[in-house]
Design brief:
By secondary structure, this protein is an alpha/beta fold. The chain has helices spanning 3-12, 29-32, 35-43, 63-70, 84-94, 113-123, 176-182, 193-203, 231-246, 251-272, 275-284, 293-306, 310-325; strands at 20-26, 51-57, 74-79, 99-104, 108-109, 130-140, 147-148, 173-175, 207-220. It is built from 13 helices and 9 strands. Helix 9 packs antiparallel against helix 10, helix 10 runs parallel beside helix 12 (293-306) and helix 12 (293-306) packs antiparallel against helix 13. It is globular. The two termini are 39 Å apart.
Amino acid sequence: MSVAAVHALPAALDAGAAAVSAVICTRNGWSRGFLDETLQSLLAQSWPAQEILLVDDASSDGTAAYVRQAYPQVSVLQNAGSGLAAARNTGVAAARCPWVAFIDDDDIWLPEKLAEQLAQAQASETPDAIVYASQVATLNSHGGNPVDWATPRQFATWPACLLGSPIQPSGVLLSKKLLSRIGPFNEQIQEGAAYDYWIRCLSAGMSIRYSNNILLHYRQHHPQMTAPARKFDHFLNIDALIAPYLERLTPALAQRIRDARLLNNLRALMAHSGLSAAARYWRASMPRSVPGLRTVCYFLLDTVACRTPHQRRHALRQRAMQLLIGKKSVFPEQYATGSCRPASRS
């Protein structure tokens, strides 16, 4: 999509149908030092959000007061320190527009973000059954140029999403109708509630549509839950999160996905946290089994894909996923022992 075409998009959109509520969730965002850049990226949109809601999750640094003074066009909502999932639910409940977009308090939207995603929605026959996801570049908190992040398309179907999250929450656009159908974020999940939401969407028959261009700069820094120092605990928490969904699959497929997750997580721990962390994870991952041939082939091909350029990586990873799951990986009823939709845990 050309720059001229992107900037022409707002004129083609219907103002009422394309109204967006942007929801920012923060706790002590002002003192962390990135909140201004985030808010300015929202205000610089070529198609502006009709309302910007900042959900302050019990900040102790004066974030709410600062935003009220510096950004009077932003509505500040209070949340009782009950976590990110609850903060997102607070924002959704207050949103008055037909579309909702989330962003964390340290990430950045590119100026065409909302315009491009709304144009995708307008062109779709079933916009209320699609999660619109941004392609992403990562930012280092210490500076430097954004680095393209390989879009995880191989996880963007059911049950492939049980291998990894296909979406960065700061890049999504969802209709209020979809949010109403799927229900609120699960506030009982301490880590991974957004990932759980994407699994619920895909297992309920929703689909994911990625943007044509990079629309999100996702900031990486040490305190994040998925930083290398926390990968061991993170993997155990996510293993527990997906366990109920694995029970919805046939035993053979569930075992292949479980074994593939184990191999992928061991690979990541050895690369980022060292052999001792990988050994701890191996001991904690019970029960274990000997991976079958399909799982081993998946893992080897996926490992090769990790070391190839982005333009070839997607094709290799899709092929690896086909080896593991089968050729039909879009909401395949034959993989489930009962209903494909896991029971809501919200």
